[in-house]
Here is the input.
Amino acid sequence: MKNYSSLIEIQKDIREEKISCRNLVRDYLDKISKNEHLNAFIEVYTEEALSQALIIDHKFKNKDAGLLAGLVIGIKDNICYQNHTSSAASKILEDFQSNYSSTVVERLLAEDAIIIGRLNCDEFAMGSSNQNSIFGPVKNPINCDYVPGGSSGGSAAAVRANLCHVALGSDTGGSIRQPAAFCGVMGLKPTYGLVSRHGLIAYASSFDQIGPICKSADDIRLVTHVISGIDNFDTTCIGKKTPLDINKKFSPKSFAVIQDTLEFSGINKGVSKEFNKLIEHLTDQGHTVKYIKLPLLEYLVPTYYILTTAEASSNLSRYDGIKYGLQVSGKDIESLVTNTRTLGFGKEVKRRILLGNFVLSQGYYDEYYQKAQRIRRLIQDKTKDILAENDFILLPTSPNLPFKLGNKEASPTQSYDEDIFTVHANLTGHPAISFPLGEVDNGFYASAQIIGDYFSESDLIQITKQITL
Ligand code: GLN
Here is the structure.
């Protein structure tokens, strides 16, 4: 079977009876079993996907197939699917079966997508390299000695290796965009409030968003259209559906490049080179590019980690061995809870729960948590100002290329620093899209991201399509 770059091509071939959904699914299943060494899938829904494919083939024949008919999709293991296990790659939820589906899953199924399995990730989506999973690390399909990025490492690796056509990930501080960049594919972190978080296992609720990892801007557009829009189950979900129709003529745009990101000491030379080529390309296309300063750059990572660990410590308090998942017995209630949490959580998750409780505790609350909230507001205000004068903000997705498996485990803060370019859009809630630029080293790509105004996904997708053509 050919490697399709967009769902539109797949649907065309199905309509012309060159392929069937059933054969398509068989082909993905075959590739999944040949690529088990990547460790991208935690579970594959073989029988279900095959029988669903038969139903969709009939729908094609009856001409009543949904918008996503022919789409074979994988979902990150923190997105709940009724009567299926969702573990967030954690021991504490290893056997947890959800009794309802997340809104995104409901919407995918309503448009005839075929869910082929659940994908590996960092435990509770905490990490940047997919090395914090109880199911073991995911390998980068470009070179198996390297990490695929994280926390949606399984999602990005699966799309890159053609184990499914599209995958859903979640992005709290870059977990869609950075693994997409490490695996040379595209990813969108929607505006906070565009996609419902109902049924997403929470990490940091004021940051978390679900979004697609794809190989083309057209697929990002289709999937975002389907999963977006108001949902009564999530009161923070206020955005209208992202429109499908974006074929309007596009006038030249103004881009603000954050100069501080290019001057950042840890940036890889190949990344800067490819990024500068993109700037030339944009000016050649008639767009304007302006260099601006963001003096708050050095505060992004600390602010992000103070606020997300605070939210995580509260969100993860529900895993007490009584209401959900794993239960380890103890002589009384207190020791039951202690034993369950001691055995159930991994090292990184425990570190963040401790840090979160610390910044929220009496005496430190003002000094850390409240100060970080104020800085978050300053970053938001500054970003709004930039976007009032420019159409988009342009910056690299990650300062570096993928590193070798096993590296950076020794120093968590070194790993946190790698999130410097992605956490910006989560702190402010703006949408950001990441797409690959040229190949730099060892087959790995540099990637860029564009941040746009709130709910401007349609423009982001359109400009990305124009740039990547
Ligand atoms: N690397 C970041 C973290 O560990 C981002 C994670 C995410 O977006 N889920 O918090």
Q: What stands out?
A: The pocket of glutamine is lined by residues 125-128, 151, 170-175, 203, 308, 419 (CB under 6 Å). The CA atoms of residues 64 and 83 lie 27 Å apart. The chain has a mean pLDDT of 96. The chain is about 40% helix and 15% strand.
